[in-house]
Amino acid sequence: MSVKSFLLNQYAKYKLKDVPEAQREMMIALVEKNPELFKKIGEEIERRKKGGESEMKAAMEVMKKYRTELATLMQR
Asked: What global pTM score does this model have?
């Protein structure tokens, strides 16, 4: 396991502590497949939050925007 993978796992465990482990592992695998996509998603969510949207609304809207890319990633 690389240092990057280890740190990603530790961060995911911290941020997703209430998410079942199987789902958490799936999310980590998706991020490892295309980290740039998730970086872009995270940055866009942060921009929307700074613009006054709630975190939940911002996340839902951004996920809708990238749903095609996310679906493709899940198929791999």
From this structure: 0.76
